[in-house]
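ARCHIVE CARD
SHELF: 3
SLOT: left
DATA:
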Amino acid sequence: MGDQQISPLSTHTKTEFLRHLLDDIEALEQMIDGGLIESGVTRIGAEQELCLVNPNLRPANSGPQLLTEINESRFTAELAKWNLEINLDPQNVGAGCLQAMEDQLLQLLKLADEKSRECACRIILTGILPTIRKSELDFKHMSPNPRYRVLDSIMKELRGEDFSLYIEGVDEVNLKHNSILFEACNTSFQVHLQVDPDDFADKYNWAQVIAGPVLAACVNSPMLLGKELWSETRIALFRQSIDIRHAGNYIRDKQPRVAFGYDWLKSSAAEIFKNDVALYNLIISSEMEGERSTDLLARGEIPHLRAMNLHNGTLYKWNRACYGVGNGKPHLRIENRYIPAGPTPHDEMANAALWIGLMEAMPENCRSNWAELLYFQEIRSNFLKAARNGLSNEMSWFGNQLDAGELILEHLLPMAESGLQKLGIPDDEYRKYLNTIERRVRSRQTGASWMIDSLRYLRANHSIDESTLLITKYMQENCLGQVPVHDWEKPNPRTLVSIPDRYDRVDSLMVTNLITVREDDLIDFADTLMKWNGFHHLPVENPKGELAGVISSRDIERFRQQDDNSDALVASAMTTDIVTVAPEMSVEHAERTMLAHEFGSLPVVRDNCVIGFVTANDIRNLHKKLDSQ
């Protein structure tokens, strides 16, 4: 989860931190050149991020309490109160390593599940929780961990304005947000692989090559805020949610802090850290105590390179280079950050096995020959295509264009099998994982496609809110089960009645596909729109898009009795003394408000802008639905 002792930059701390940072990189180069980095040993590890949900399947702010109840060092806080992270123990690669990893994962998830029930919540494994609403992304839901609050403050100051989020898929999300908490929507299963220092550049390049097809096989995040977006929306969301770049000269390339990369690695791991210092501004600091890393090396001690790791922790490469020290020995790892959490532990382990096997199966003719064999932009394009469309792509593969499913089934699965065998993992241990990948790809049912197919099936008779609740309920009930996602059925709509408080707020009921008019529109135009659509009210917006009033058929009739001017504008007849509700308001409160004021509808407003409408008829229909259930 990163170093907790961080602080904003100041002149003093930046100067000292920079000295240590440059010294750390020099020390890393000395260790690589001197053969001090551990080699000849392959280890794997993983970090499991998860979401917590209330009985009504909304995010549960129980993380801090649950951490206390669990009281296990492998569990740590995450960015939001409704997230947690589990750090699995490293495993020496060989017979039993995959099974040992899965056994520990299941053991710790079972512990989390048992303790979560005591805290009136449950755990769920998903790339993005389908039932998250914008109100749950407010700063008050951020973890009390000081690291995240410092990062939020620093990034907002560097950004200088609200963060922008625009993702277009089948639907689109276009909004601004005032904290980095949107990052917390993303939960992943991050897999670590220890790599020999002499092989690091080639293995890192190979990790980039296989990223697109591996991601295509494991996409699991197709929805955000009820919108159908990318197959792996995390890729776009993470990048934009903490993007502190400013719009400037379009000719200058400026890399985001969440990035795939822009070129092949040519020499060693030190090259990555050097480039990162050159390309990315420091955004955090820390009090740097003790001797310089090069001085420790000169005395025969192994440094932890804290300054370098702190800076590296503010960069979120989808394949990230990592330096660590274990049992007194320094090592290098590649961290795979693009594999999403869920839908089940077995699915996650299948994704991990595919990646680990492929990493070991790197073709020998690729070594030091990447630019001649492959064009980097094609590799990056594969990754983005996989994020957008999952398996529904053609991918570039050593000069050929192949269907993503064909590439995985005919080329990558045999390579992964040979790699796992080379690592000494027996057939009866890895076979179940690769079989899962094969069946998932053949059936074309990834976590993402299951969610989208389920959403479209449910939307025939249910609202978006009801559909995401049903999808999340099915996911939560099956996330710790033994059935992988390729065998999942569509959710049963009848289970909706078992979800408590499912219509708890106005935003679970309101209509968001609005027709509005402007103050300077003709009254006849507003009247015609209402007649065309069978409406009795329309929101009126000013030129800034803010709610200026409401015009009703009754308002128009009353105005025409006094003035028959055919050129009269909406501003002349609209009602400006209006009552609005917030999306977080309870349905019961909205109903009482309508009754008290004898209104037939209420605009739903956030930040002075109308985002929905709730009517008395909506509430009457809700009562009928609940009575019939």
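SLOT: right
DATA:
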Amino acid sequence: MKKWRLLLFTLLSIYYKTTVSQTVFEHTSSSGIYLFLDEMANEKLITLNTAVKPYSRRIIAEKLKQLTTLTDQLNKRQKAELQFYLREFYIEFQSDSTITTSVPLKPYRQKNGSTLSLLPPIYAFSSKPFSLSFRPYGGGDGYANSKGTIYNSYFGGSIFMYGFKNIGIYANYRDAYQAKEVLAMPTYLTQSPGANYKLNNGNRPGGDYSEMRGGITYTFKWFNIGIVKDHVQWGNNYNGSNILSGRTPSFAMLKLQVKPTKWFELNYFHGWLVSEVIDSSRTYSPGTGQQRTVFRDKYMAANFITLGPFKGVALSLGNSIVYSDMNVQPAYLIPFLYYKSVDHTLNHGIDNQNSQIFFDLSIRTLKHLHLYSSFFIDEFSITRVSQKDHYNFYSIKAGAKVNNWPLKNIAYAFEFTQSTPLTYQHRVPSLTFESNKYNLGHYLRDNSREYFASLAYKPLRALTFNVSYTSITKGIEHPYIDSVGFTPVDMHPLLDTIVWKNRQITLGVNWEFAYNCSVSMDYIYSSVSANSANSQTADYYLQTFSPAYLRGRNNTIKLGLHFGF
């Protein structure tokens, strides 16, 4: 009996010595830290899987720790940025004994375990094994051009906690208002985050929305698992991913990350999407004079495996399936399966669900240079390759970014994206690659082409000057109708009929005076035009793809003030 007690005590001791990690995700809207870590990866100072976002705050702290041993390879501005971010992620160094740094930290003002800061607005408390951080935030952007002025504003707060050596908890609430006109409806071809707006609420022109994100996670030494409601972005990019863009309203998911070695990483989630397709069989009248409307259930399972076969090279491959008209399927809860094959078993002899496969290649073998490409395949048939005038449904992205060459503190990037007709679409409304009617993939959707180039100069830690050029060409969105009397769905060539174009130049300056607190100003020249096609007028396509405020030629000034995101 004593031997069993001794064995149990030994196992528990090993457990508590190794399980000292917690996971809380830092949202991608914290662009400063994401760009800094990307720069450090491009300088070959750290290795980082940039194909999968958001990063956890612990991973960010570990990378910052690694950089503290390489300060002799950083320039003055980079050293200042490192110290700036070490200060922000001080709570991770306090709450996790495995993260230590030789660089003296300059935390926010502390007393008796409590931390208080006005810029950025933070209250934190740390007393092992428990840590907490609360942050109120608010701000907005104003726009002015010849059509008048509009603005958006928001307020809210976030909180995250670490406890019991393995548990991470976080929550984020935002309440926002877009005055006069909403700039991010589901059909608009913009990168503004999607939201479920209450239009003209209280007779106020524009739209209101609220967004609640958060989750609870459990972390062991080489994996973490959690139930979260958040955004997911898969695929390397600097101007919108074509695999999972993270632009839809957040949705609930069971999320898993596994990284047992340096060269292997598995990311998986099973998500509860929002179909917004009415289920007439479950819609009913409760007898109160109103109808109770019910949406069809909609789910998604996806995995993404990243391999590091050579130093500086990361190859990621994965697949996903959107499914409905059934309960949660246990087979789709297995994180490493090929779901299309599972689908063929579950739906033998009847219509299949909607499956996809995708790849991402990231190359950082040369210092300063990042080469990347991602490939999203919606439908693919070998016979279409050899058949004339038959086309597969896919999206491809390729790009390059250079940091600190030939001049220090300079970064420039070029990116190309192209999606063939019918990519991301499906003939069954409840199986589309969407949630809340926002496309999960690239923001331009199918039958589109984009060129993007940018140049940024950051002379100081807090100050960034940037210029970018974007050229977008959009073809007609053909309906996914595969029946007699209609053109076969695989016989629509790329950009066969061009219906919408946008040429945009942006000049901007951003001053991040505290973490996630910034003042910005942008000048935006845009030329948005459309053509008539398929018995629809040019105005129809302008209204479908762009808000009235941005149609035609515009010289727009954008001013932003943000205290947290």
